[in-house]
């Protein structure tokens, strides 16, 4: 999906006007089943090449991409104020949402997994949820610029900033007053078994990436097969165990609060250098999640005795099949994701645990206010006391009857 580079010479009212024109054109096209042409469309097309060349030549210091969740509000409402701040800061804006048909030809775009953004981006602002941050991470398969994530999604565990006072927060970060959390990523390499029967004349389908970086986890599961998976696990070349169940999760400390915690794993602070290995529904009462050092290399293969193949996915993307003889190598990458903190490393993490996962939420036990409550809880009533109280009640009733007579 292409994304426009909006230069600072395009003001927000003009952008909003183009957006409204696009919506009107879409409605008319749906009603009349034809595309409506505007009077100024020809003029726009004539100036497309000239404007595009001008934008391509302009390169200002400080470029920042913005990614947006599909469920987020209209980009004009949320991106506009951010764009005004970046425009005043003389920064080029990279908006990552579906480009408007009337202006997309006037903007520079990039293509996912085809254009290298390593040396073009200096600062990332994410508007959305955790999935938006994961998508921004996979755009950079090497070094990642600092990421400032605003919470506009549903969960928002990885997005500590609120959009209410974004002007103050963005300006504060641009002035250099911000702390960073280096979130480690996993380098995942899929090694396919050489197929001697493959013919060079056989048409090849789309190539699936086999070398990826993940921020949360890599998941190996049984896929559509009804049989349990049988996966062999190696650590630095040494056989560790076989996983018989639904699959295996290899996660970073950041991903320990995602799929791994749902599978029964512990939660690890993102600053801890570690790799978590968590089985998915293992057919064993003693197979517990384990934590290994960050510097080791894990190798995952399909056991020769397995009745079916396995499937692997990377942060929920690029799902592909692992056949017998294939292997998956996983180790900690040297390219972490520098995430900007709203407060600090510790406070942000525990605030997310409390607000998003409701960690350790329980009704508070009341304290003992006075001695009367203590006596009522600690006093033990004997059988003799009960009999005495009943006898007194009987005597009182007899006395009342005698008085009446």
From TrEMBL:
EC number(s) recorded for this UniProt protein: 2.7.1.23
Protein name: NAD(+) kinase
Family: Belongs to the NAD kinase family.
Keywords linked to the UniProt accession: Kinase, NAD, NADP, Transferase
Species this protein is from: Callosobruchus maculatus (Southern cowpea weevil)
Region span, Disordered: 45-70
Record keyword Transferase present: yes
Highest taxon, organism lineage: Eukaryota
Main enzyme class: transferase
GO MF annotations in UniProt: NAD+ kinase activity
InterPro entries the record matches: ATP-NAD_kinase_N (IPR017438), ATP-NAD_kinase_PpnK-typ_C (IPR017437), NAD/diacylglycerol_kinase_sf (IPR016064), NADK (IPR002504)
GO biological process: NAD+ metabolic process; NADP+ biosynthetic process
Keyword flag NAD: yes
């Amino acid at each position: 999906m292409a994304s426009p580079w909006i230069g600072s010479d395009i003001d927000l009212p003009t952008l909003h006007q183009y957006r409204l024109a696009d919506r009107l054109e879409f409605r008319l096209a749906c009603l009349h089943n034809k595309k409506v042409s505007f009077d100024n469309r020809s003029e726009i097309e004539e100036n497309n090449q000239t404007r595009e060349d001008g934008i391509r030549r302009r390169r200002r210091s400080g470029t920042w991409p913005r990614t947006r969740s599909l469920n987020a509000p209209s980009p004009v409402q949320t991106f506009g104020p951010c764009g005004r701040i970046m425009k005043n800061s003389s920064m080029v804006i990279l908006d990552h949402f579906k480009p408007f048909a009337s202006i997309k030809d006037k903007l520079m775009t990039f293509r996912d997994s085809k254009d290298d953004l390593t040396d073009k981006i200096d600062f990332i602002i994410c508007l959305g949820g955790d999935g938006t941050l994961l998508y921004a991470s996979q755009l950079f398969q090497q070094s990642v610029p600092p990421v400032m994530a605003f919470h506009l999604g549903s969960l928002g565990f990885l997005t500590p900033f609120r959009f209410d006072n974004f002007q103050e927060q963005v300006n504060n970060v641009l002035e250099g007053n911000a702390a960073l959390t280096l979130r480690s990523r996993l380098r995942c390499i899929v090694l396919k078994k050489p197929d001697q029967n493959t013919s060079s004349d056989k048409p090849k389908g789309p190539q699936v990436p086999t070398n990826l970086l993940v921020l949360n986890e890599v998941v190996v599961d049984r896929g559509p097969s009804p049989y349990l998976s049988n996966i062999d696990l190696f650590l630095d070349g040494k056989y560790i165990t076989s996983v018989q169940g639904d699959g295996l999760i290899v996660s970073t400390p950041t991903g320990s609060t995602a799929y791994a915690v749902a599978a029964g794993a512990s939660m690890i602070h993102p600053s801890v250098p570690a790799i978590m290995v968590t089985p998915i529904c293992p057919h064993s009462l003693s197979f517990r999640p384990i934590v290994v050092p960050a510097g080791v290399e894990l190798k995952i293969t399909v056991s020769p005795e397995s009745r079916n193949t396995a499937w692997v996915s990377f942060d929920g993307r690029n799902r592909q099949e692992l056949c017998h003889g294939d292997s998956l190598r996983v180790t900690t990458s040297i390219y972490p994701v520098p995430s900007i903190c709203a407060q600090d490393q510790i406070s942000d993490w525990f605030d997310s645990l409390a607000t998003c996962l409701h960690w350790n939420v329980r009704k508070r036990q009341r304290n003992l206010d006075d001695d009367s409550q203590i006596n009522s809880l600690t006093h033990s009533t004997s059988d003799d006391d009960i009999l005495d109280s009943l006898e007194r009640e009987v005597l009182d009733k007899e006395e009342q009857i005698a008085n009446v007579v």
